[in-house]
């Protein structure tokens, strides 16, 4: 399925440590419905600081909805979601607090087309955190260098390739200095040539010790970077394990079927 | 067999200039005027039409037109074309209505200040826009009321019954435009609100105002409103028309803006939320700049139609530009076959200049704001 082979991804694991005690996200007995449709069922998930979790599963299995619940782009109806010690309720102030600490990268980038790359990166730090412009631009430049496109800072998103736009989207999230990063199929809308440049940035980010939740079909990335793979189907967590065990020795029938279809 | 299929390019082909028939004036004429038989036929027909109409029009408007005259005698000559002398003679009336001659400097000053502020606001890249915005939206209305109406600071009072002509047209149109855009944005956002009260109040307002003709609104404002007010209270006629036109226009504007809001992909709202921007910040910084940019043609369309609709106020006894032109169209001393026609031509060209100006400015802004992003 993926054009990027495991061998292409090299990872420095020295800083990728999972905290034993600090919980980043805790989801307990969570249920969600879209109208009458029970889209997430009985979700229990505890993510420790520094974990890199890949969520896989067939389309319509609820994996995107699950991570969108973590920054409340979707509302859950039952159970509890606690992010960075803050429980998500309908309290708008708390939602904004969580969103400040949780970065999100979307499948279709969702850059702001009327703003330059630099403005895309400085807007939230300036208007949400109240950081002065000069300082925000310095931070933005730092992250644009890290995603290897500082020279595009004054261009508009429409002038960039898909891979470049997605790297800007990652930099834009990082400018808010988040504790947790959510990735919702970040490479699914990209041409094969561009997938690797985005994955490289994500690997680079994982190496800094960032807590990451990625919905992705890039199994090479999952095996090399993730410390845990979660498999979802029909709105439920079917199986989770360390990547090697997950890929080499899947337990559930549904997982075996899924892996046989996407790995060749 | 394999030799027929296998092929390896040894040298890359160099860039060459296009053939002469494709470029320059010849290329252009060939492509646009004489591409094929129907195209050439249309070109010839269009030329024939121009030859037939342009000289006649020219003679009427300029060649045989009367520019200088004391009264209508010259204009009554059999070959006489447009009677411009009549328009020139009545020019002051068309611009100021019954405003006293000695006080013309007051509307002139207001117009000049307004024109300067508008130019500064609409000219991109000029600094201190904030200051001129405050001056325009707060200072100018106060200045306009003090100067135009008078009655304070030693200025003789000129009641609104004496206002007229282009002055009234511009006042109604600019108040309508300046009020309707922000109110329309608020109503459009209100209509998409998740709060039922806000949502249904917005819908009720929009649907009520949009569904009645402007003439009805103006009649209600000038004839029926006084019946509901306590005895003795009078609201100025021009003020009533202003409120009526502005609210009417707001309803239209709200729907134009809503179209822009709906055209934005959901991802823009989500990205703004995910970054922690609250509702007002995400609307102000992300959603509205894009939504308004998408609907610039619709917004300007509304403005242009409002500008022309101001002439409807003549039915409630206000003399706008068209009203003043109409009032003099049967003036005895200028009696001539083309007297009325010339007056209407003048009114039409003034309307056209303003509307065309708005149209060009909007096209310029569209090009300028285009950041090359196609959704």
TrEMBL record, chain A:
Keyword line: ATP-binding, Nucleotide-binding, Transport
CDD domains the record matches: ABC_HisP_GlnQ
MF-aspect GO terms: ABC-type amino acid transporter activity; ATP binding; ATP hydrolysis activity
PROSITE patterns: ABC_TRANSPORTER_1, ABC_TRANSPORTER_2
Residue intervals of the ABC transporter domain: 25-259
Protein family according to the UniProt entry: Belongs to the ABC transporter superfamily.
Top-level lineage group: Bacteria
Protein known as: General L-amino acid transport ATP-binding protein AapP
Organism for this UniProt entry: Maritalea myrionectae
InterPro entries tied to this protein: AAA+_ATPase, ABC_ATPase_HisP-typ, ABC_transporter-like_ATP-bd, ABC_transporter-like_CS, MetN_ABC_transporter-like, P-loop_NTPase
């Amino acid at each position: 399925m993926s054009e990027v082979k495991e061998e292409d991804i090299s990872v420095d694991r020295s800083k990728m440590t999972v905290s034993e005690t600090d919980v980043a996200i805790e989801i307990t007995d969570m249920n969600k419905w879209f109208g009458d449709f029970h889209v997430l069922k009985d979700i229990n998930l505890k993510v420790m600081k520094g974990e890199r979790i890949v969520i896989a599963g067939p389309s319509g299995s609820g994996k995107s909805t699950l991570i969108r619940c973590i920054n409340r782009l979707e509302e859950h109806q039952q159970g509890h979601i606690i992010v960075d010690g803050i429980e998500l309720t309908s309290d708008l102030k708390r939602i904004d607090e969580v969103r400040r600490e949780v970065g999100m990268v979307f499948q279709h980038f969702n850059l702001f087309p009327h703003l330059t790359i630099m403005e895309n990166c400085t807007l939230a730090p300036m208007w949400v955190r109240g950081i002065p412009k000069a300082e925000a631009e310095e931070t933005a430049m730092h992250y644009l260098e890290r995603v290897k496109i500082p020279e595009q800072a004054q261009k508009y998103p429409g002038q960039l390739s898909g891979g470049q736009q997605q790297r800007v989207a990652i930099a834009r999230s990082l400018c808010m200095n988040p504790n947790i990063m959510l990735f919702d199929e970040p490479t699914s809308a990209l041409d094969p040539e561009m997938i690797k440049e985005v994955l490289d940035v994500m690997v680079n980010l994982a190496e800094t010790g960032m807590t990451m939740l990625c919905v992705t079909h890039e199994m090479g990335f999952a095996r090399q970077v993730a410390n845990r793979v979660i498999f979802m189907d029909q709105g439920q967590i079917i199986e989770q394990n360390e990547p090697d065990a997950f890929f080499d020795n899947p337990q559930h029938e549904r997982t075996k079927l899924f892996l046989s279809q996407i790995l060749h | 067999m394999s030799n027929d299929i296998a092929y390896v390019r040894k040298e890359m082909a160099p860039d060459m200039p296009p053939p002469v028939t494709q470029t320059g004036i010849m290329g252009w004429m060939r492509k646009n005027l004489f591409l094929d038989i129907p195209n050439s036929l249309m070109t010839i027909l269009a030329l024939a039409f121009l030859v037939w109409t342009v000289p006649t029009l020219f003679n009427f408007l300029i060649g045989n037109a009367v520019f200088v005259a004391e009264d209508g005698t010259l204009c009554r000559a059999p070959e006489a074309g447009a009677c411009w002398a009549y328009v020139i003679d009545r020019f002051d009336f068309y611009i100021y209505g019954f405003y006293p001659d000695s006080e013309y400097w007051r509307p002139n000053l207001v117009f000049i200040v307004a024109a300067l502020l508008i130019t500064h606001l609409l000219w991109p890249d000029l600094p201190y826009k904030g200051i001129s915005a405050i001056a325009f939206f707060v200072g100018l209305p106060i200045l306009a009321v003090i100067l135009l109406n008078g009655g304070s600071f030693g200025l003789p009072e000129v009641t609104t019954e004496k206002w007229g002509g282009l002055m009234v047209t511009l006042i109604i149109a600019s108040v309508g435009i300046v009020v309707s855009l922000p109110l329309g944005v608020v109503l459009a956002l209100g209509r998409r609100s998740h709060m039922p009260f806000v949502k249904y109040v917005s819908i009720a307002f929009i649907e009520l105002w949009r569904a009645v003709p402007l003439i009805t609104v103006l009649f209600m404002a000038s004839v029926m409103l006084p019946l509901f007010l306590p005895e003795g209270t009078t609201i100025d006629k021009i003020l009533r028309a202003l409120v009526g036109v502005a609210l009417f226009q707001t309803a239209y504007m709200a729907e134009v803006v809503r179209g822009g809001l709906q055209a934005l992909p959901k991802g823009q709202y989500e990205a703004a939320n995910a970054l922690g921007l609250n509702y007002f910040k995400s609307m102000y910084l992300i959603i509205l700049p894009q939504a308004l940019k998408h609907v610039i043609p619709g917004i300007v369309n509304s403005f242009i139609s409002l500008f022309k609709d101001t002439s409807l106020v003549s039915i409630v006894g206000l003399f706008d530009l068209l009203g003043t032109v109409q009032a003099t169209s049967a003036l005895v001393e200028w009696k001539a076959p083309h007297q009325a026609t010339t007056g209407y031509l003048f009114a039409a060209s003034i309307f056209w200049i303003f509307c065309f100006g708005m149209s060009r400015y909007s096209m310029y802004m569209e090009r300028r704001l285009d950041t090359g992003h196609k959704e």
